Please model this.
Amino acid sequence: MMQVNINGESFKFSTGKHNELQKAIIEEFAPNSECLYVGDTIEKDLVKNVEKLKELGFEITLHDKMLDVVLYREDKNWIYFIESVTSVGPMDPKRILEITEMTKDVTAFLDFKTYKKFTEELAWETEVWIAEMPEHMIHLNGDQFMGPR
Model:
């Protein structure tokens, strides 16, 4: 089992690359965020704050296709919907359509090698975070960054 700090409490993830990446997302990508949802590969709804999600305008039912990690950063009023990519696909255009009205779309990878495997499937208007290079983001949004420096 792997120790993970979620919302100031100690939890245990089962071992494996998927949970290793989810741990990095929660503890390193957005450490100042509240984890509203994360599932362990064994315990699917390890953290599920339905009330907070409802308060922010998002309803979760048992039939919803949840992403791997949902974080809320109160100081910026941002919600991060994050796919933890270790073997299954990233946030692609079909997935974007399935999850509407998001404030921040992030696909996370454990390493650059896995990222390269899925680059052709990534949707525009999403962000990419790679755990082995935690200080950088890849922005798939040219309009936002075009123009003089």
